[in-house]
Amino acid sequence: MNPVLTVTLDDRLADLGFIPASRVRSEPPPGTATIDDVIRLRDGEGVICELIDRTLVEKATGWQESMLAMVLVQWLNNFLDQNPIGLATGPDGLTRLFGDTVRGPDVAFVRWDRLPEGKIPTVPIPDLVPNFAIEVLSVGNSRGEMARKRREYFRAGVELAWFVDPRGRTVAVFHSAEDFNVHNDEESIEGGRVLPGWRVNLGSLFAKLDQRAP
């Protein structure tokens, strides 16, 4: 008889980057979830989960994080209106990177040449790797979780990733899972060869966090 491999919750959390257990869905049991479960939770309960190792993990969220993500989507769409080289999506734009791995970047950009037949997908979770992904870090994100996410992004074919830290008011720009530079709110950063011509002034971005009623 072959031995049965037992995976404890601690083992699972370690594999996921030592995330809080409260973000792991117990139904269906970790290790048995499918893409259909991701769709069911999103459409039925409005809960955005990623699928990792066939385990449903709720995305860490925050009010300020959501606001910054929406600002970046707005600025990116404004750029794409004038430079129609692809499409932008927000955090509920889930995609299957490979296998059973489903991720939902807070902001993503995909060039037209990566879209099947150059058309917008009609399936709920397409097999689609964005060229560019932005993650706005929440308090609930662990270092290990984000390191794993970076590895998966670049393994799948993401070409550029920005990790935005609202509390430190910095952005780490990754050209691979380990090759990065950190920029502060006195700098501007660019989309490079992935988004040529798109430029974000970080002072203007983080100033959105200081807004007050007129």
What keywords describe this structure?
single chain, alpha+beta, six-stranded mixed beta sheet, 5 helices, 26% strand, globular
Question: Would you kindly provide a brief summary of this structure?
Answer:
The chain is 27% helix and 26% strand. It has 214 residues and is of the alpha+beta class.
Task: Explain the overall architecture.
The protein has 214 residues and is an alpha+beta fold. The chain is 27% helix and 26% strand. It contains 5 helices and 12 strands. A hairpin with a 2-residue loop joins strand 4 and strand 5 (101-103). It is globular, with a radius of gyration of 18 Å. Mean pLDDT is 93; it is low at 1-5.
Q: Count every helix, treating DSSP H or I runs of 4 or more residues as helices.
A: 5
Q: Provide the gyration radius in Å.
A: 18 Å
Q: Biggest sheet, in brief?
A: 6 strands, mixed
Measured as a percent range, the helix fraction is 25-40%
What's the structural blueprint in terms of helices and strands?
Layout: H1 9-15, H2 35-45, E1 49-52, E2 55-58, H3 63-82, E3 86-89, E4 95-98, E5 101-103, E6 107-111, E7 132-136, H4 143-156, E8 160-165, E9 170-174, E10 180-184, E11 188-191, E12 195-201, H5 202-207
Parallel strand pairs: 7-8
Antiparallel strand pairs: 1-2, 3-6, 4-5, 6-7, 8-9, 9-10, 11-12
